[in-house]
Structures are given as C-alpha cells and as structure tokens.
Amino acid sequence: MAATETLTAERILEATEEVLRRYGPAKATVVDVARVLGVSHGSVYRHFRTKAALREAVTERWLERNVVELRPYAEGRGPADERLGGWLRHLFAMKRQKAGGDPELMATYMVLIGENSAVVDRHVDHLVEQIAAIVADGIRDGAFAAADPDVATTARAVFDATDRFHDPAHAADWSAPGIEPAFEAVLSLVLRALRRA
Amino acid sequence: MAATETLTAERILEATEEVLRRYGPAKATVVDVARVLGVSHGSVYRHFRTKAALREAVTERWLERNVVELRPYAEGRGPADERLGGWLRHLFAMKRQKAGGDPELMATYMVLIGENSAVVDRHVDHLVEQIAAIVADGIRDGAFAAADPDVATTARAVFDATDRFHDPAHAADWSAPGIEPAFEAVLSLVLRALRRA
Which residues form the HTH tetR-type domain (chains A, B) (predicted)? Predict the structure, then answer.
C-alpha cells in the first residue's frame, strides 16, 4: 500500500489529532489512528512505541506550534521593546484563538496536558528562552537595563507576570470586557521594568 | 432566650461558616444556621432576607478578612516599595495558608465564589485600592515615578502581574518547589517598573 511508504511521524501526529478531535481523549485508540491512515497499527507503533508516547508527541506538537509562530519576534531585528510587546501580544492572540475558536479541541488538549506535565514544563522553557533572547538583545542594544538578577530569571518573571494572558487557567476571562486594556497595562508595566532608565 | 437578644449579623455569619464547613455548600440551610445559634430561622431572616443574601454575606466576610489583614501595609508609613513588597508577600502567604491549611473550607468558598462573582469583583476592587494607596504614597514621596497612565490602572496592573501568587486558579502551584524565588522575581520586576529612575 502506497500510504505505508510515506508514513512519517508528522502524518501520524496529524491523524492522531484528527482522531482525538473525533472520538475525544478517553476513547481515541492507536487502532483508530492506523485506520485513518490506512495502515496497520504495527506501522504506527514503529514510529511511536506506546500509546502514551504518541499522546505525548501530539501534545508537544500542539504546544510547540506556538514556539514556531513566535520565532519571528524572538529572532527578529528591531527594537527589543517592540519585539517583546509583539511576542506577548501574539501569544495572547494565539491562546485566545485556541480557547475560543475550537473549544472542543482545546478541552481535548487540556486533558492531554494534564497527563503530560513534563511536556508542558519543556514547552514553557522554550517560550521563556525566546523571551530571554529578546531581553538579552535589548540589554546589548542599550534599550533595556542590565537584567537583575540575570536574564533567565528576568525572562521567567516576564512570563509569570503576564500569566493572566496566556495560562489556560484564565481562559474564561479572555472574552471579558476590559481584558485588552488590562493586557496593555501589564505589558506597559513589564516594559517599564526592563527599559534603561 | 438570651441568645436572641445578642443575635448580631456577625454571629450569624460565624454560625453560617460553621454550618458550611460541617454540611458543605450543597446541603447547608438557613434552618441549620438557626439551630446552631439556638434561634428560630425567622430570627436569621430578620438579618438576611434570603438564603442567597446570607451566602453572599458570608463569602464577602471571608474575602474581606484579607483586606483587613492587609490594611497595615496600605495605611502604614515607611518606604512605599517595602510596603508594597510586604503587602504582596502577606497576600500570597494568606492565600497559601487558606488553600493549604483548610482545603475543605477553601473548596466550600470556591463554590460560593462561583455563585457570587459580583462579590469577588468588589473584593478585588478593594485590594486594588490598597495597592493604589501605596503607589500614590510612593509617587508623593518621590520613591516611585509618576504612574503611567494613572494610579488606578497601574495598581490594577500590579495586581494582575502578580496574579500567579494570589489567584486561587493557581493554588496547585503554590506548593511547587521554586515558587518562592518565582514570586520574588516577579515582585522585583514590579518594583523596578514603579521606582523612579
């Protein structure tokens, strides 16, 4: 069968997301994924050794799309304060879209995230590394004051301080009136903290 | 009966908390409250016209204890940055104690809070007013730079930026290792934003 020749991890993960969406996290099985792909479940297991590994990989893929989308801000040129503002605004926009645009898929991933806290921790580390890159550029350019105590701690503090605008625990607030000005006020506070006096 | 002569709103609220603790929010009734106090339920209704009003009042009392406890920082003298640090540290400590010390009562109040979002909004307003008082003092003393755009918005941004350390949605993180340094890093970021250059 032609399908098996081109069976990649990425294709399996796409099919897994489709199956999760269709059956929900409680009922989705590796056999369902294989059926969608028109392959044997053994072919799926050659790429992902267990169902748990497959679920972890699909969760990681879902989360890491944020990192890919935010990369232009992290690696871009231009003033560090604008890049950080853009990064935070874009993260908030993506999170709101995920929460509001497809609540069922979001709920599915919330279940998977609950099963895979190590994946979430790694993902947060990647996001904080992107903030750290922007902060380090800002310090080098003289736009930001030297980080106190250090860039990694400062970047984590920026992530934590804006947590109301990206942690799914707050998703219910994201459609409240006044959430936009609240975000802008926190962003402005964070930038004031970073800017060179 | 002597009890009726001294029946105050405060005594009813104490008894209501006791009844909520004993029976849980789903089962607690006004009749239970009256029984604990040794009065008729009519006597309770003379102070609180409905069961909903009683539940709202007991929720408000529970929340507003924080405001009372934090008042010394809000109204105190001394450097504004130390007062704000003390205020935020004390709020975090109280929230952790409530969440960790008596999880059952905490769960009860989480149910009541879900029923009374207007009470929570008023309570948050009171907390933000305390932050605003400290920020305004700091600006007057020259310790803090002029608030941009204004004191009320800045105070709300300080509250939102520290949300990971007082919003019950994050209670599960409060016993995680590293939560103390994470709090101190956010506090330090917030104070850097406020201090005069």
Answer: 6-66
Q: Which site among B160, B173, B187 would you substitute to test the A interface, given the most A Cβ atoms closer than 10 Å to its Cβ?
A: B160
**How many contacts does A have with B, using Cβ atoms within 8 A?**
77
Q: What is the CATH number assigned to the segment(s) B58-194?
A: 1.10.357.10
User: Using the 8-state DSSP alphabet, how is residue A145 labeled?
Assistant: P
Delimit the CATH 1.10.357.10 region(s) of chain A: 59-194
Q: Is B185 on the interface with A (CB under 8 A)?
A: yes
Pick the CATH number of B2-47 from 2.60.40, 3.40.30, 3.40.1390, 1.10.10: 1.10.10
Whether B176 has its CB under 8 Å from any CB of chain A: the answer is no
Decide if the complex's ipTM is over 0.95: no
Would you give the DSSP letter of residue A28? Answer: -
Q: What is the pLDDT of residues B21-70, one digit of tens each?
A: 999 999 999 999 999 999 999 999 999 999 999 999 999 999 999 999 99
Tell me which CATH code domain A59-194 carries. Answer: 1.10.357.10
How large is the angle between the packed helices A117-141 and A51-75, nearest 10 degrees? Answer: 10
Candidates A9, A174, A14; CA nearest to A95 is: A174
Closest CA to B188 of A193, A132, A50: A193
Write out pLDDT tens, residues A5-56: 589 999 999 999 999 999 999 999 999 999 999 999 999 999 999 999 999 9
Interface of A with B in 114-153 (CB under 8 A): 145, 148-149, 153
